[in-house]
Amino acid sequence: MSNSQTSKSTPLVKRGLAEMMKGGVIMDVVTPEQAKIAEDAGAVAVMALERVPADIRAQGGVSRMSDPDMIDGIIKAVSIPVMAKARIGHFVEAQILQALKVDYIDESEVLSPADYVNHIDKWKFDVPFVCGATNLGEALRRITEGAAMIRSKGEAGTGDVSEAMKHIRTISGEIRALAAKSEDELYVAAKELQAPYELVREVASTGKLPVVMFVAGGVATPADAALMMQMGADGVFVGSGIFKSGNPAERAKAIVKATTFYNDPDVLAQVSRGLGEAMVGINVTDIPAPHRLAERGW
Amino acid sequence: MPVGVLALQGDFREHIIALESCGADAIEVKTLAELNRCHGLIIPGGESTVIQKLATNYDLFEPIKNKIKSGLPTFGTCAGLIMLAEKIVDGIEGQIGFGGLDVSVRRNAFGNQLDSFETDLSFKGITGEPVHAAFIRAPIVEEVGPGVEVLSSLDDGRVVAVRAQNVMGIAFHPEVTGELRVHQLFLKMVDSR
Q: Is the full-model pTM beyond 0.80?
């Protein structure tokens, strides 16, 4: 298609798209109309799914990949990248999403897992993957399987940011601890993290993950988004927080601004005004452990 | 005086690192005061629709446009190229850029992410090894106005890098491949002003 030595779907190209999304907000949408609202509000990408996590939580049942017609409709509606979710371990859903030409696949704990042992072998795909993680070992295992982007999991569909906070603190803290270790301690560190030694050594020497890390799961307000950015996130996913709120378009715009100007309390005060009702929310501590989505994935 | 990188969204940190690796003094630009300190400006990769909105919301859009018009050396990569084009094809409704390059640029010209690629390019003004380039949901330059110099094209002739007076725009990302020579070329434009 272009030059003689052209190569597609390389790790650089896969990770590169996530680099371009940094400092941005990725929004969950369930219809082309919502996708358009998200794009107009300044979303850097949209996540196409059948039901937002708050509804998945409320309605229960098995949650699966979205209808291809819906995904097609969303791809047609917007010019920004479109992501879509496949169940953990469901490599055929991923094959279908790749055939639909989505820009990124989220192998997501928000859907019902299809395999309680293995995740998808993401190296086999041309399309890049983002995966959730609650700690450094989990993030590195996903990267080993081929993930080109990580999002800390938080607890989706709650509007409670405390789990997102816990996960980004855990991952950042473990990276700092690794960076402080001497070289001969890294072998045991790799064993403890249950991650490959080479990757552990890379993180220890660079002091960061080799891929972009966004935060997800419970971000509902501009202040939540700015909190995650101040904690060192590269960007934020907002799921139910926007379209389960009183004024989605305004809230979406406000969260985009807060993500850029996360360090400026005057801007944050201004964009936090007059947004109407936030999503109702559930305290994570009120959710019995078996119903916590973040515990899916291993 | 430092070179600024518009730091509203996208891979601005990689540009800061690239500039610093070239020995330049680099700062993030999010405010008018920061813009006014700069004697060169980079518009990074990212989402052009988002960069436009944030620049407009924070009263940077007109000042940047005017600075470019009055000769501020400016360099855009990917979304940055789109932001510097006088004409944007396949933009969203109401999408406009800062302008500065009399070219027509098509967004997502290669298709979706599956069509993103790496390749080697020859680039006017850069000798030795070819420039290794990553095209990520990249735009291309479809029409080139008078006075605009083509710096690089793909083998099939599609234009991917251009310059006119104080403004340079390229469709790929030297900031993510560790290629410093395009930034060095830009710094020469900054110094010669």
A: yes
